[in-house]
Amino acid sequence: MDIISRKEWGARAPRNRQTTTWSRRTEFIVHYSEGPTTQTPRQIQNHHMDSNRWADIGYNFLVDVKGRIYEGRGWLVVGAHAPNHNTSGIGVCFIGRDGDATDAAKKAIRWLYDEACRRKGGTLAKRGHRDVTATSCPGDQLYAWVRAGMPAAGAGEDWMEAMMKKLPLLRKGATGEHVQTLRALLLARSHPEIGPVEGPFDARVEAAVKAVQKWGGVTVDGIVGPQTWPVLLRVHK
Ligand SMILES: [Zn+2]
Q: Which pLDDT score is estimated for 152?
């Protein structure tokens, strides 16, 4: 993934900066901005520098709903995001309110976490801001995700499950590219009676589907859905 640099998002120069080292970095702290998802890093920086009178934007990185990553203070500059945890903690802010975090945003935050561990050459503790300060931050949704170990979207599912979710429900008369997929799978399962790969979901296909369903031990209804696709895709050994 790419990190949008300070120069690219038009950051103001910091008033001052203090650096730390990877050996002192021990935790990764997730925040939310508790504002609109359209807020820009520059608007957040202006608020932090002009209203809070901080030296710079408080966070080390920011992530938006589209999963874009913005450089804040960066990896090893001490931030202003969690009192007593700014040297030990890398602060990452999701731009939005509770419930706004998307899979793309979570994936980006997880990527930053993995990249931080890689650069450190060790593991950083995963924390929500509320773990170290009395605050609602980073909101219930993101906090639950952090507590669950920050699973990347799709992680924990194998490719078969992921693919299955994209496959449609097909019945006699269905059309479209997935009918060709179905016909190809039936041909691979020794049902030449359906004819070539290109063709409709007709009565012959329905009969072949029923035969496969019977073989697979699922409901014999001739409808190809979440129970039948896995049977069709089961690998012969
Ligand atoms: Zn926070």
A: 79
Is the model more confident about 177 or about 64?
A: 64
pLDDT of 157 over the 70 cut: no
Q: Which CATH number fits domain 159-233: 3.40.1280.10, 2.40.50.140, 1.10.101.10, 1.10.287.1040?
A: 1.10.101.10
Cα 91 to ligand 1 centroid, rounded to whole Å:
8
Specify the pTM: 0.67
Q: How many angstroms does the Cα of residue 52 sit away from the middle of ligand 1?
A: 15
Q: CA angle, corner 178, sides to 175 and 181, nearest 5?
A: 125
Name beta bridge partners: 19: 77
Rounded CA gap, 71 and 41, in Å?
9
Q: How far is the CA of 93 from the centre of ligand 1 (A)?
A: 7
Check whether domain 3-147 has CATH 3.40.80.10, yes or no: yes
